[in-house]
Automatic annotation (TrEMBL):
PROSITE patterns: FLAVODOXIN_LIKE. Keywords: Flavoprotein, FMN. SUPFAM superfamilies: Flavoproteins (SSF52218). Residues 4-169 form the Flavodoxin-like domain. InterPro entries: Flavodoxin/NO_synth, Flavoprotein-like_sf, FMN_Rdtase-like_dom. The lineage of its organism: Bacteria, Pseudomonadati, Pseudomonadota, Gammaproteobacteria, Candidatus Comchoanobacterales. This is NAD(P)H-dependent oxidoreductase.
Amino acid sequence: MSYIFIPYYSATGVVERLASHVARGVIMEGLEARLCEIPSLQKVDALEQMNDIALSLEQSLGVIMGSPTRFGHMAAPISAFWDRTASIWASGSLVGKPASVFSASNTVTGNQATLLSMLTPLLHHGMLVLGVPNEGGGGQLDSLGAPYGAYTNEQNDQADLPQWSVEQAVVIGRRVAVLAKRLNS
């Protein structure tokens, strides 16, 4: 149980690339990063797979979830995943675990809305939500200052991610790992 769980849904590969930078931040702090792609709802056994994935959620020291933006909201597979966690919510097994979120959208406002929508399930589960701190806090906000989580506006899966979004991803990975270690020492 010494890992940070990083479930994500990535339709184009951009969120997956951002997830790898989140994982790098976790690893920098000496914890294992377990990346897990949430299946598309088009897959026949997607809901059964989500039940198995939920077990990793419970057994982790912390969670950092990623999603592309869909009309200012998390993608349907991420929402469906959280819908499968009612028994976990009832058990309270996620209460007090550190968590954060990351996203990809064409627009800053789309990212902000998506990140906020992804925070809601974390708060309902009683998790300790961490964002991207401003200067002096070990992170770097972009010029528009969205502290809710890491994100990128890059949508081309072949293009390099902007350096500021890579830095944000590493920062949330490190922040969740640091707090998880403190809480479990």
